[in-house]
Amino acid sequence: MSTENDIKQDIELPDVQLNIVKPKQPIEVPIVENRIATKNASPNFIRHIVFDISGTELEGNVIAGQSIGIVPDILDKDGKYPKLRLYSVASPTNGEDGGGKYISTTVKRLLDEHWENQSIFMGVCSNYLATLKPGSKVKMTGPSGKRFLLPKNPENYNYLFFATGTGIAPFRGMIMDLMEKNVKSEIALIFGCPYRTDLLYSEYLQPLAESRANFHYLKSISREDPRKDGSKHYVQTQIEDESELLHPILKQDNTLIYVCGLKGMETGIYKSLAKYGFKDYLKISEKIAGKDPDDWDKEDLKRNVKPSNRMFLEVY
Ligand code: FAD
Ligand code: A2P
After folding, report:
1. Which residue has its alpha carbon closest to ligand 2 atom 12?
2. Mutual orientation of helices 169-180 and 202-211 as an angle, nearest 10°?
């Protein structure tokens, strides 16, 4: 696979400490806030949860873009604790409190019909976290993640952040970091969700977009108003629909793309980027170099298209 599209100079990332708290010995930290993050009318249950990590090894050592591990305090039928689940940190690097003591995350309850027998399926950890009250303690590990971070010199780059659902968590923290550092380059958040009621953190993001000329907030609401051709608004469709804003940013050779959320969302972004000629963000194998990106199939996307070092992915 060609590497010619990797940005010439290395993108320097901050040094981070990983797994300070190991899964075998999680620490116990109290919850200080657990609130619904959607509008009340949303059919999705997504919560903003804040943890107090003051006085622990994690204090001051969790950076926007990293994840923490949560071990649900529920013994399974064999008397064992379930494995830990990872959650992206939604707080800025200085924490919710500005001093690295409080960190947060954005958790969506996994609720569905069971694929096999149509009974109600409830994810273990997301539903455990959703029910906890302030004061309850949770077992936490981490941090993890050493690449999905803002660069060391954030003012040298423009940013396109593509998020679906709880994929917004790391971008809330990163955008807060960029604002705190008064970064003047172009920053666009492209957020996808099913309904208007699911515009997470819009109470922060909307006024920010209105007050900061270099911050752009684009919403792709998939199950409400369709696009002109009847198709759904997805994050990748903004590359076409908002071309006047996004193409000049994408053309600059110091622009970085970050993608977080639904596993599989990245392939739509790859296709859209390639379709409009923004191939610097991708490594495209010779095998499909002559093929129209609209015709790339699942196999092409799996084997023959990868992100270049200008794109950062966290999909789950
Ligand atoms: P589980 O009990 O683990 O159930 C999920 C599993 O059950 C799935 O793996 C699937 O195999 C199966 N399953 C799913 N649906 C059904 C069904 N209908 N019928 C039968 N089986 C089914 N989540 C967030 O909410 N916020 C975040 O910020 C976040 N950040 C993450 C960051 C990273 C790096 C990663 C890897 C994951 C992140 N996640 C995040 C996802 C999170 O770790 C959990 O996977 C998620 O909360 C579900 O866990 P659970 O214990 O509730 O579900
Ligand atoms: P939809 O479910 O209408 O097809 P949430 O995690 O809150 O459910 O939000 C995920 C959002 O991402 C929804 O708007 C969903 O649309 C959308 N989505 C689903 N599949 C993709 C995909 N392949 N690429 C981009 N967005 C997607």
Report:
1. 164
2. 40
Extract the tokens encoding 286.
């010779």
pLDDT single digits (tens) 50-109: 999 999 999 999 999 999 999 999 998 899 889 999 999 999 999 999 999 999 999 999
Which H or E element spans position 300?
Answer: helix 298-303
Give me ligand 1 centre to Cα 130, in Å: 13
Burial of 10 (0-12, 13-18, 19+ CB in 10 A): exposed
> Torsions phi, psi of 267, nearest 5?
-70, -35
Does any ligand 1 atom lie closer than 6 A to the CB of residue 121? yes
Residue 316 CB–ligand 1 contact under 6 Å: yes
Nearest in space to 267 (alpha carbons), one of 303, 243, 241, 291: 303
> Average pLDDT, whole number, for the chain?
96
Ligand approaching nearest to the C-alpha of 105: 1
CA distances from 163 to 2, 204, 269 (A): 27, 16, 11
User: Is any atom of ligand 1 closer than 6 Å to the C-beta of 314?
Assistant: yes
Task: Kindly state the average pLDDT of the residues 239-267.
Answer: 98
In 5-79, the DSSP E strands lie at 27-36, 46-52, 67-71
What is the dihedral angle through the alpha carbons of 112, 116, 118, 123, rounded to the nearest 10 degrees?
A: -30
Give the type of residue at 76: D
C-beta of residue 68 within 8 angstroms of C-beta of residue 103: yes
- Does 314 participate in catalysis according to the annotation? yes
Could you tell me which of 57, 32, 31, 35 has the C-alpha nearest to residue 46?
35
pLDDT digits (tens, 9 = 90+) for 267-302: 999 999 999 999 999 999 999 989 999 999 999 999
